[in-house]
Write a structure and sequence with these properties.
The protein is α+β, with helices and mostly antiparallel strands. It is built from 26 helices and 13 strands. The strands form 5 sheets. The protein has a 5-stranded antiparallel β-sheet, sandwiched between helices. The longest helix has 39 residues. The radius of gyration is 33 Å and the shape is elongated.
């Protein structure tokens, strides 16, 4: 049986706690009536136990005041669910602000209840624990129901005809308005041609709810604010081109034909001229120059201004949506009472034992993330030996190949650990037993982001601050398991390693991830369409509409959460190690321009409708952004102090170089810096010098470090540099954090216009109460 001939309309009995209403079918198609749809396989109808569970669940919905209609096709059974008007009357009554005994505001009729509110309430009731003890999710897992979703409103069917032929002279129904809103979103938002157009945030809110609208409002503002950061980063990067051939350090390296570098690692068995690194030295100067410090400070200020102005933007949006006084806890309690009038408040609880266990388990997972970074170190050491032994690369290309493949391995490890981290974070949240869904979401956000942060950034921390610093020196190298020599930094310095790692990971995340994010849902949707053969499924418009929605890709609680998490990790890459990769804001800008339209197309055209959620801010993500801003100051300060050559250059310029007694116009102040920064090693001290090519005519070689030539202990210059590095780090962090605090103080979180509007509304409310009170007197 198909369509209306094959469907059964089941109505609730008289005397229920919520009397049922007649459904008006004159304005819209029947499928436009449903707030929610449940889908079951035909096989469940033949399974006695599953059919009984199904009927029991539907009967309980009837007792709570829901209509449902069963519509069948040859494979699936669709249950259209619609709530009675009394449910929404009760919702309005519970959340209505009290206006005093003299003022009684009647709750809004169902025709004025927004579709987002209807779906949100129905979804909450459906997913609450039933009287039998189970939930809808349990029924889905056991196969009683296959899917549940809210309907997209498709124009072109009866709703569209209502707009074209019957809208004149009468008020449009909410479902017709919703269909019109979806069509507007498809035309004005979910198209590539609209990439540079403003987003219709109000329309997004009317269709997907406040939570989704705030995500896109934040993402749009973040993308807009990336423009100045990208321009400054590009200028810093391009400024290196102006000094590409003029840099004194690059000149000395390119002309150092008589300086031989010591063999690096087990894969290098010959001496190498310093001039061979000429190209890499020039490339390093593109991002490791005098502008790096200024750019790092600028990004610290940028991150603060971005967040402070976002807070102001959010305040304006929330006031515009009339959500300034909305309370999430009150909303959840109201929904609980609607679902079960006998609901009792669950008080806040805290267990020090649970918190201790969760802390220990979290630290264990963090240690696992750090261990993953150590495994990456092991891979790089073994890969260097493998590439050299198999002759896949020339000797001078081995280091670059190890860096590139190491970044690829790290990217794959991140994908795997993301699945593990989400599972662990969920289990920790279940163990903690949060009181409400919003509290659970907040705790899950903190745990999952913490684990993801270490998964993404642990290897970068190793490269920036550990790589090449614990290797010993030529003739006495630290070896892994006593066999393999630890990996050295790139010939041009560790900044090149960090730059390459950042470039590969960001490039993969911004290109490959975005492609998969779009192609995955698109191919999955096409595959589902091909399997179901929609064109031959049914000629009935209502059934065809239900089938179209069913064949869209499923969504879940994490659909919007995953989008936020992706942006937080990108924000971390854009700010935390930006001193080593000034092009990060530019890549993020290009990525976000595509990300906005990708997400829009997915949500409107490829995925089932997200359940709307009410919100007045982006929640815990704001604290995550503020934490990243502080970590960015610390990390960039450490990169400049310990990874970059900035401090050694400045110290040499004013303490050891030709300008230490004052500037000399005819001499560059960095003349002789390369010779000063390379230590001397005598080849007679090699443990096995015969195996090194060309060792017969070489008495000494040079390597990057500050050590004495006599005993190879750390030299005085090393300790002077270390002290200055630490002083610089402390000064940089304090100055940058002070700038952040001043900027946060200087830019108020809430605009004066918003504060004045809220004060005016409060004043008008009090005046109305005073005038309506029988005891009020005129003065």
């Amino acid at each position: 049986m198909q369509g209306e001939e094959g469907g059964q309309i089941l109505a609730g009995p008289e005397g229920d706690s919520f009397p049922l209403m007649e459904i008006n079918t004159g304005e819209t198609e029947a499928s436009e009536q449903w707030d929610y749809v449940l889908v079951a396989d035909h096989r469940t109808q033949r399974n006695t136990r599953q059919a009984h569970q199904q009927q029991q669940f539907l009967e309980e919905l009837k007792r709570k005041g829901f209509h449902y209609k069963m519509i069948e096709d040859h494979k699936k059974v669709f249950f259209g669910i619609r709530a009675d008007s009394r449910i929404f009357d009760l919702y309005c009554t519970l959340l209505m602000e009290p206006e005093g005994p003299a003022t009684r505001v009647q709750p809004a009729r169902p025709s004025s209840v927004p579709a987002t509110t209807r779906i949100r309430i129905v979804n909450f009731v459906l997913n609450s624990k039933a009287a039998a003890g189970g939930t809808l999710e349990d029924l889905v897992k056991s196969g009683v129901f296959e899917a549940r979703f809210a309907l997209h409103k498709v124009r072109g069917g009866p709703a569209g005809r209502g707009l074209e032929g019957g809208a004149r002279g009468r008020k449009l129904s909410p479902s017709v308005i919703c269909a019109q809103g979806e069509e507007d979103l498809k035309k004005r938002w979910a198209r590539w041609r609209n990439m540079f157009h403003p987003q219709p945030i109000d329309d997004i809110r009317d269709y997907f709810g406040e939570k989704v609208a705030l995500y896109f409002a934040w993402l749009g503002w973040y993308t807009y604010m990336l423009v100045p950061a990208a321009l400054v980063g590009l200028i810093i990067f391009l400024s290196g081109f102006s000094l590409f051939n003029a840099s004194q350090i690059s000149k000395e390296i390119c002309e150092a034909h008589d300086i031989l570098l010591c063999p690096r690692g087990d894969h290098s068995r010959r001496y190498q001229q310093l001039s061979d690194t000429c190209t890499f030295a020039k490339l390093t100067h593109l991002f490791d120059n005098e502008g790096t410090v200024l750019f790092a400070i600028f990004m610290a200020l940028w991150a603060t201004v971005f967040l402070e102005i976002w807070k102001r933007q959010r305040a304006r949006v929330v006031l515009h949506w009339d959500l300034y006084g909305w309370d999430e806890d009150q909303e959840e309690m109201a929904l609980e009472l609607i679902n079960c009038p006998a609901y009792e408040l669950r008080p806040q609880q805290h267990s020090y034992l649970r918190s201790t266990v969760i802390l220990m388990l979290s630290l264990l997972m963090i240690c696992l993330m750090i261990g993953m970074a150590h495994l990456l170190v092991v891979y790089r050491v073994l890969a260097a030996a493998l590439f050299n032994s198999t002759l896949l690369f020339q000797e001078e290309q081995v280091t670059t190949a190890v860096v590139v493949t190491g970044a690829l391995v790290h990217y794959v490890a991140i994908l795997i650990m993301t699945k593990i981290n989400k599972y662990v974070a969920l289990k920790l949240c279940d163990f903690e037993k949060p009181r409400t869904f919003s509290e659970r979401e907040s705790k899950f956000t903190i745990k999952f982001f913490t684990l993801q942060f270490f998964a993404h950034f642990s290897s970068l921390v190793y490269i920036a601050f550990i790589l090449g610093r614990i290797n010993g020196h030529p003739g006495k190298s630290v070896r892994l398991a006593g066999l393999w020599k630890l990996e050295e930094c790139h010939l041009s310095g560790c900044m090149m390693d960090l730059f390459l790692q950042m470039a590969i990971i960001m490039g993969l995340k911004q290109t490959l991830s975005n492609c998969m994010e779009y192609l995955g849902p698109w191919l999955a949707h096409k595959y589902r369409l091909m399997r179901f053969k929609l064109s031959r499924a049914s000629g009935d418009p209502e059934l065809r509409h239900l089938q179209r929605n069913y064949l869209l890709n499923p969504v879940n609680t994490f659909s919007l959460f995953d989008e936020f998490m992706e942006m937080m990790i990108q924000y971390g890459f854009t700010t935390i190690f930006v001193a080593a990769f000034p092009l990060a804001p530019l890549l993020a800008l290009f990525s976000n321009l595509a990300e906005i339209r990708l997400d829009a197309i997915k949500m409107v055209r490829l995925q089932r409708r997200l359940v709307p959620r009410k919100a007045k801010d982006i929640g815990t993500w704001l604290q995550v952004l503020e934490t990243i801003g502080v970590l960015a100051v610390i990390a960039n300060g450490m990169v400049i102090a310990f990874t970059s050559e900035f401090i050694p250059r400045v110290v040499y310029k004013y303490h050891y170089g030709p300008c230490r007694q004052g500037a000399q116009p005819a001499v560059d102040c960095l003349t002789g810096y390369i010779n000063h920064s390379l230590s001397v090693f005598y080849t007679k001290d090699f443990q096995d010098p015969i195996q090194i090519e060309g060792s017969e005519n070489v008495t000494k070689c040079r390597y990057r470090d500050y050590r004495n030539a006599q005993d190879y202990n750390l030299s005085e210059q090393f300790w002077v540099l270390l002290a200055i590095r630490l002083v610089f780090l402390i000064l940089f962090e304090h100055v940058a954090l002070c700038i952040k605090l001043i900027a946060a103080w200087f830019v108020p979180d809430i605009p004066q216009s918003v504060e004045n509007k809220v004060l005016e509304e409060k004043y008008q409310t009090l005046r109305e109460k005073m005038c309506s009170s029988p005891k009020s007197t005129e003065v």
